[in-house]
Design brief:
This protein is α+β, with helices and mostly antiparallel strands and 327 residues long. The protein folds into two domains: 186 residues, Jelly Rolls; 73 residues, no CATH class. It contains nine helices and 14 strands. It is elongated, with a radius of gyration of 26 Å.
């Protein structure tokens, strides 16, 4: 068993030995997903964690859709990365969802180890050499294919940068695929490589969802949408309105599920209303800004919300009065 200096205490074995290895784990009682996560935390609590042990734990888990389906979030246009467990910053465990024909770019794993397990369908992994300089002008050659493997249900594979680059894809035109990935240590950026030229581009990696919840993604999208819409408001109202939005989103950051649902619904309605009032489909579609507030809704406001609403009214009134004097 060879030890790599950059592995920070993790022992590595050859990829050929790891790929599809049927070890004694198959004879043991399979781990549930929660048991796997617990076992991984215990393994990484040691200073001399071995990648062989990590691989054995991943092999011990048998795919059970009832356990991982809450993390399986698909997108119609590209594969998704869905965080399952952060591993106390020592590893990331995530579920990747691959629609028909979806695939990754050719990429590296910066100072990290990757163990991948198939939970549903099939995935094709293609490995490549690192870019090789073609001449003194630092031009690189086309990446050379080292091998291609199709992985089926519950099969695993392993890679790190000493073994090359790779690309993963769902080659099926009819069936989606789901895989479980462990990365240690976690990384937030990687390099994506052009197959023809070998040129690399730095790429930030993000999560489509965390812990089975896409609400955080919806919140970010809604928040950014509202701030963009506010750019079309009069300057005085824009400043106060944007300040109010930021304060409200911050206040509700850790609210419960019921409050979060109400919060998102109300702000979504606000964004739709503001879109209509600003006439984003053309000036002829614009409507007067604002909306009459009934007494029932007004009584639901907190004191600070009433004060902020008053400030907005003063700002709007002052603007209208100024425009009236100018004319």
């Amino acid at each position: 068993m060879q030890v790599y200096e950059e592995d920070r205490g993790l022992l590595c074995v050859s990829r050929e030995k790891l790929l599809n290895e049927k070890n004694s784990c198959e004879e043991k009682v399979p781990l549930s997903l929660s048991e796997l996560i617990k076992a991984l935390h215990e393994a990484f609590s040691k200073d001399d964690t071995r990648i062989e042990d990590v691989k054995n734990l991943m092999a011990s888990y048998r795919s059970n859709p009832a356990e991982w389906k809450k993390y399986a979030k698909f997108d119609r246009y590209r594969y998704t990365r869905n965080l399952v467990d952060e591993g106390n910053d020592k590893f990331n465990l995530m579920v990747l969802c691959w629609g028909e024909g979806h695939g990754s770019g050719i990429h590296d794993h910066p100072n990290s180890h990757c163990v991948m397990k198939i939970l549903q369908g099939e995935l094709c992994e293609t490995r490549y050499t690192w870019p090789v300089m073609k001449n003194e002008d630092k031009e690189t050659r086309e990446l050379e294919v080292l091998g291609k493997t199709t992985l089926g249900l519950n099969e695993i594979c392993y890679i790190n940068d000493s073994l090359g680059l790779h690309r993963v894809e769902n080659a099926s035109n009819t069936n989606p695929a789901v895989s479980l990935h462990l990365y240690t240590p976690p990384f937030s950026t990687c390099s994506v490589f052009n197959k023809q030229t070998g040129q690399k581009t730095s790429c930030k990696v993000t999560f489509w969802s965390k812990y089975g919840d896409r609400r955080q993604r919806h919140v970010r999208m809604l928040y950014k949408t509202i701030l963009r819409l506010h750019r079309g408001l009069p300057a005085e109202i824009q400043v106060l309105g944007t300040s109010y939005v930021r304060d409200e989103f911050k206040r509700h950051k850790n609210c419960d599920e019921v409050a979060a649902t109400i919060f998102l619904n109300e702000w979504t309605e606000y964004a739709i209303l503001l879109t209509k009032q600003l006439g984003l489909k053309g000036p002829h579609t614009a409507k007067p800004l604002g909306e009459n507030l009934n007494e029932e809704d007004f009584n639901k406001f907190r004191d600070e919300q009433v004060y902020q609403l008053y400030e907005l009214m003063i700002a709007a009134t002052s603007k209208n009065n100024k425009n009236g004097k100018d004319t």
